[in-house]
Design brief:
The protein has 117 residues and is an all-beta fold. The chain has strands spanning 2-6, 9-11, 17-24, 35-40, 47-52, 59-61, 69-74, 79-84, 93-101, 104-107, 111-115. Strands 2, 4, 5, 6, 9, 10 and 11 form a seven-stranded mixed sheet that branches. Strands 1-3-8-7 form a four-stranded antiparallel sheet, with no helix packed on it.
């Protein structure tokens, strides 16, 4: 199983970024899996930011990002996205996508998002 994130970078407060996570190697077809985005800031625990159900239905968000972040998926591309708008300095973290397969949680390598002027 491989999860490969991309799209991180440096952005000014109030700016936007879109993260992508391409998935390969799941046991079953990608659309049957719920997917999640987590983040971990320096000195803090990893936290769940957003989740999307399969095959592309319900979504859930941490209170801190509601109304600013949107999780979505393209099942034809085996890819999950995180659109991040109105970014704040508190959003600075390494962002990871994740999914469960056969009772094990898989993680990407992470992509750094830095919000700073």
């Amino acid at each position: 199983v491989q999860l490969v994130e991309s799209g991180g970078g440096l952005v000014q407060p109030g700016g936007s970024l879109r993260l992508s996570c391409e998935v390969s190697g799941f046991t079953f077809t990608f659309r049957t899996y719920g997917m999640m985005w987590y983040r971990q800031a320096p000195g803090k625990e990893r936290e769940l930011v957003a989740a999307i159900g399969s095959p592309g239905g319900s979504t859930n968000y941490a209170d801190s990002v509601k109304g600013r972040f949107t999780i979505s998926r393209d099942n034809a591309k085996n890819t999950v996205y995180l659109q991040m708008n109105s970014l704040e300095s508190e959003d600075t973290a390494v962002y990871y996508c994740s999914g469960w397969d056969r009772g094990r949680q898989y993680w990407g390598q992470g992509t750094q998002v830095t919000v700073s002027s």
